Amino acid sequence: MFHKIKKEELTWGESLGQGSFTKIFKGKREEYIDCDSHQMDVLLKVLDHTHRNYSESLFEAASIMSQISHKHLILVYGICAVNKDNIMVQEYVKHGALDIYLKKNKNKSRVNISWKLEVAKQLGYAMNFLEDKRIVHGNICAKNILLTREGDAMTGLPPFIKLSDPGISITILPIEGKLRIDRIPWVAPECIGNPRNLSLESDKWSFGTTLWEIFSPGDLPLNSLEPSQKLQFYQDYLRLPAPKWSELAHLINQCMAYQYSLRPCFRAIIRDLNRLITSDYELLSDLPPSEI
Ligand SMILES: N#Cc1ccc(Nc2nc(N)cc(-n3ccc(CO)n3)n2)cc1
Q: Minimal CB count within 10 Å: which of 66, 131, 162, 254?
């Protein structure tokens, strides 16, 4: 399962924002290694009291991430459950979530095509690792990608990302609720009607949507649609607006195949991303970065 962390070990810092069910805070964790104390930065993810009934889903998310370790997966130290608070304690990632970073750096030259391809490839490695272990993540999106290193185009230092925990699983969200529709177009079509269809294949669909997010300058897909129109999008087998770069559009559409057996495995996705990386340089000559 996961390590139980005592309240006394934790010191609370500033609020860093909130998700749909949780609030996140910076914190410090006191830990004793061979009897002298060490203070380390941690991220405290607190389940809202109103969603206390979702606590076992938060524990499940922590448990999944605690069972495995990989350089592109977030390190979860454990859970601290005190009176009515349920807190997931994870490593503190310096630059936070990718969706916010992309918005903030929308037209910065630092976040160029090779930067985005590197981030996409690292996510592919994390997903390939999970696929090899037959572990379903269930909530792949730019909000759950964390940036440990911004990278530096001058020195050629690439960015470095870690995939965060999946948070509250869609399988326990009420079927009629808006909360599940809000996850369109990240959640695969086969999971909207029956979330039990969450699978390694549905993670591939979400990867496709996340690729679209990474290459769209900070836009949210289908953001302008009402919930009913989002459902209709799937019923009409519609596609996200294709990026101008046709090879990228092709890869996104392969991942977001409505027929889940047609979605490529992550080994194939990584191979295709490597092809884009090598082909990318001819492309640079004729399109400004924001026009991909
Ligand atoms: N300004 C600012 C700022 C915000 C957050 C961090 N750090 C961090 N560390 C983690 N381990 C996880 C997260 N998350 C953020 C959203 C989610 C949802 O998954 N996680 N943020 C650093 C700077």
A: 254
144 lines ligand 1 (CB under 6 A): yes
DSSP 78-121: EEEEETTEEEEEEE--TT-BHHHHHHHTTT-TTS-HHHHHHHHH
pTM of the model: 0.94
Tens-place pLDDT, residues 165-186: 999 998 988 877 788 899 999 9
Q: Phi then psi for 146, rounded to 5 degrees?
A: -115, 145
Q: Is 19 in the pocket of ligand 1 (CB under 6 A)?
A: yes
ipTM higher than the 0.95 cut: yes
What is the best residue among 65, 93, 165, 183 to mutate for testing ligand 1's pocket, by most ligand atoms within 8 Å of CB?
93
Tell me the three state secondary structure of residue 180: helix
